[in-house]
């Protein structure tokens, strides 16, 4: 036991502050990698890779040369395979890294511009909440994608540019059944109705409930590839749903919708009581 403590003390004595920082950074990166994988379908692929490593170890110990040769060569090309297979997850991870808080500093924005942006968002929030309530009562489907830091230019190109100020009447006309632009998503940029009739990528998440239709799958798809906030009105049930970061919150009221939009789209208001979207979701789940 004395030798064990002596060995441990020697190890700690040889660790410099830079070594400790290095270990902390690597541990944090590994933690974030595991967290990212656990929230996606990539978890099953990681399990498959772990099985291959175990088989390689057994093949080496049992002298199974052919199997060992095949697995070894497969693992040698594993980096390229992982880049191809994990492409959606890697892209999402890099996009999340790019979503830093630096953009919120507004170092080169005047207070007048910030106030104008806030007023534009307030006007949009009022218009969307009012019309969402109407669409919900009439069970008319709607899909509204609110662009934030991640630009959605590729998606906007699939629709029609309208570039109009928001109003309940315009939103209602766009999603009215059989109107030219009702069968698609509306893209909102900087508080303005930027485009309509846009096609969104569908989520490939196999755990999505079968009760959810194409609108909800599209909402999940665009929220998985960007930081957009998506509002969905179901034409089957009239339920209002919000989607952010690949997570759905169904059956919210118009007051809850207003709260989420305000706290997400107006994060720089001086009111200290405002909270982020994730904090609101956590409180709602706790109350449920």
Mean pLDDT: 80
What does the overall shape look like? elongated
N- and C-termini, Cα separation: 53 Å
Helix content: 55-70%
Largest sheet: 7 strands, mixed
Strand content: 5-15%
The number of strands is 7
Radius of gyration: 25 Å
Give the strand order of the largest sheet, numbering strands 1, 2, ... along the chain: 2-4-3-1-5-6-7
Q: If helices are DSSP runs of H or I spanning 4 or more residues, what is the number of helices?
A: 12
Written description of the protein model:
The structure is a single chain. The protein has helices at residues 2-14, 17-38, 42-61, 65-76, 78-85, 87-98, 111-138, 153-156, 168-175, 214-225, 254-265, 277-287, and strands at 142-146, 160-164, 185-189, 192-198, 229-233, 240-244, 247-252. The protein contains twelve helices and seven strands. With 288 residues, the chain is α+β, with helices and mostly antiparallel strands. 23% of the residues are buried. A seven-stranded mixed beta sheet has the order 2-4-3-1-5-6-7, sandwiched between helices. Helices cover 56% and strands 13% of the residues. Residues 100-109 and 269-275 have low confidence and may be disordered. α3 packs antiparallel against α4 and α7 (111-138) packs across α9 (168-175). β6 and β7 form a beta hairpin.
